[in-house]
Predict the structure of NADPH:quinone reductase-like Zn-dependent oxidoreductase.
Amino acid sequence: MTSTAAGSQASDATTPGGTPATAASMRAIVQDSYGDAGVLRHERIARPQITGNEVLVRVHAAGLDRGTWHLMAGKPYLMRIVGLGFRGPKARVPGRDLAGTVEAVGPAVTRFAVGDEVYGVGRGAFAEYAVAVEDKLAHKPKSLSFEQAAVVPISAGTALQALTDHGRIEAGQRVLVIGASGGVGSYAVQLAKAFGAEVTGVASTAKLDLVRSLGADQVLDYTRDDYADGTHHYDLVLDIAGNPKLARLLRALTPKGTAVLVGGEDGGDLTGGMNRSLRALMLSPFVGQRLAWFVAQVRAGDLERLNEFVDSGQVTPSIDRTYPLDRVPEAMRHLASGQVRGKAVITI
């Protein structure tokens, strides 16, 4: 095909809705209101612009996480009040986790150049191009595909911070991971093993084989096994499932153990799991064990540290399914069903 023919073909291209495509446009998933996966549409929109310390990434793959579902649904409602957008999302294009190639850099960017393969967190990852702040990106591990790298940043970063910054994990400790088959949990099991802990993973019957494959020393089926029955006690408990009563977490701990609350899906539409998390913080000073809760932050330093675990083979992303960009609504429904084993990824 000649360049003239190629240009003619590009100018004749249209969006999924029939709007003519332009060289400065891109395919993206957009939403103008909160709701279930039905609010997501596949359209062609203008490419985002960058400035300062921002990086324009040509997205090859994007990851799904529970936080992205909350941003789509606008729940808990407290998120809207603190800046998400009261009646509808301020950011039309959803998606945070991404992996791709640097397309352009802002004038203040020093760590990346055009053509670099990167991964991290950006704005509007469910699109052909997304914007990321420099300090939320790292160079993609060479041992991972773009699809694998795209499901690392938020979930693995959260697991790392839960274990180290808040759990203060030490080699030889007994660690219990509740919700071990999900995005954060699948990384928590592997990272805890890498830190030299003895790991017990809690999951549903259908996902126990996955948790074993991640390296867990023991697995418990939450439909029939009670981790708080007094048979065993743990130095560190990561509650990623987000629904056990605080009393059960305390019963599972050693007298000086620590429980870190990572998730919180129960608690209603207004505040979600924050009520339980705040109760844990208030209770912690009055009991022998320590209860901790945190909001994970995406940091380039954590991504670079994760690169070491990935390149050494101690951590491997577990991908359940892949979906093309126009099937993001289907991927969101699968995520909301609770059936995802590990992570789901969007390929672009």
Summary: The longest strand covers residues 54-63. The radius of gyration is 21 Å. Residues 1-22 have pLDDT under 50 and may be disordered.
